[in-house]
Amino acid sequence: MILFVDALTVIDFSYLCAKRGAVGESWIVDMTLHGQLNEESMVLDFAKVKKQIKAIIDNTIDHKLAIPSALDCQLDLNGGRVSFDYEFGGHHLAMSAPDEAVCVVEGEKIDEQSVIAFLKQQILPQMPDNVKDIEIALRPEQTSSFYYHYSHGLKKHDGNCQRIIHGHRSLIGIFFDGVSMPRLQKEWSQKWEDIYLGTQEDLIEHAQLKYISAKQEDYSFAYESSQGYFEMCISKERCDILPCDTTVECIADYLANKIKTTYPDKEVKVRAYEGVGKGAIAYA
Length: 284
Prior knowledge:
Elements: E1 2-17, E2 21-35, H1 46-60, E3 65-68, E4 76-78, E5 81-88, E6 91-98, E7 102-105, H2 112-123, E8 131-139, E9 147-152, E10 166-176, E11 179-180, H3 182-191, E12 195-199, E13 203-204, E14 218-225, E15 228-235, E16 239-242, H4 248-262, E17 268-273, E18 279-283
Parallel strand pairs: 1-3, 3-7, 9-12, 12-16
Antiparallel strand pairs: 1-2, 2-8, 4-5, 5-6, 6-15, 9-10, 10-11, 10-17, 13-14, 14-15, 17-18
């Protein structure tokens, strides 16, 4: 018997790429379970699929930085902390954080296939005996509109968003007087392609870093939150500094006001997404 659940959840995370650095991503998860009927004449109760399997995904990869095991990034897991130092395409990225902020995925790169294999290893052993196999499909949101990949960290967040490098693939809508502006949507999606969005108040001097070393052309960030102490440095070319937190509400408001300065005679509306099917709207 086969049980399927489409759009079980969405994985919002970042991954370390040899060419692109930290890439924010959002994948919709479709799940298929193969097995025998249990005493309830079910393969598995839908409520348990949604709750139990989603919890496993949340605990293993969601809102983390995924690092491929074969990537030479000087990865160090020691004493409850994780750190790495990596150079890619002439750019630099380093981080130190509580070890729960990272997951290591077997393989040379992070893609749908490697993450599917990783998730299957995590999920199948925790299924009841009547579930013999699982299939997982990961897919981005289908769209003909413009989107960008971004990573960030939210130190004031009570949950896993406080992890300093996690991210999303996000659509962006920009409107003047109620009319969509595809040119500006494309412009901002290109400007923020594979970007790290940093908060100005989290900037520190390089000498204040405790666990990693920055290069002269880097920005350095650090903060303490409920999960512990986080710090990172990144090439300035791969980062944009916002004068506010990088919640989706603040991103939408920042973009609306930034665009308004160039087009003061227009009513500007920004519809900013955080991953799939959620986001914020701001006007200026």
